[in-house]
Specification:
By secondary structure, the protein is of the alpha+beta class. Helix content is 45%, strand content 19%. The strands form 2 sheets. Strands 1, 3, 6, 8, 9 and 10 form a 6-stranded antiparallel sheet that branches.
Length: 256
Amino acid sequence: MVRVKAGFQASGVHAAWSLSLVLDGCIERLQPTDCRLVEEETLTLLRPGCRSQWRVPDDCDEARIIWFVFRPPLHWSDLLAWTATPFCLAGSPLSREVKAALLRAHRHSRSPHPNRAALVMNAIEGALLLCQSAVAVQRQARDPRIDAVIAHLTRHLDLPLTLEEAMRVACLSRSRLAELFKRQTGCSVMTYLERERMARARNLLTLTQMPIKQIAGTLGFDDPAYFSRRFSMTQGASPQRYRERAGEGVALTRSM
């Protein structure tokens, strides 16, 4: 846990997954073209190799943040699906439980217990399970036709999916599907599909030793070279370089 004053800035690239929760105050996550305010009770989950750059705005006297860097086991893959978009717990009935789980992880990380690493990971997993439930509740208001398309895309990442197939699943015209999908997800169908494939690729590169050629096939790419080009273009590093940068990590509270 760290307390930082107005004007404080930090940046870096994590070799493992990073999970942070703003307990009090707020911070600004600095993006390539703008900045995003991350307010109290907001969680941010960043994948390995992702640059983290943030500051405490001048109009905030102090921010209190709890921060973990960890390397998850393979079966956590589904729990990490909401990465990149900060998730606000404020107003969620699970807010208190998520904060309690992460504070428990923080206490374990500073204890002399011989099994402290396992206790920390157990508490983080509990928090992520609660977040998964909270995200699911938030998505219940989404149009069921869009949910059907998203479910179809997610189940069939290994197939060469097309926009026409998404239209068939949703029973919508091309223009109507594009309008609804963009409104409810913030991107086009094919952009969403590629993001899901790249997210799955990141998990497989980080959590397994599966050959890159096999990962490409698992994600619907017949040509491993094309997969590598798309991955490099969207992630800023080749699959092999991304795997190397992910490296090894431990579940400990970040200190500054």
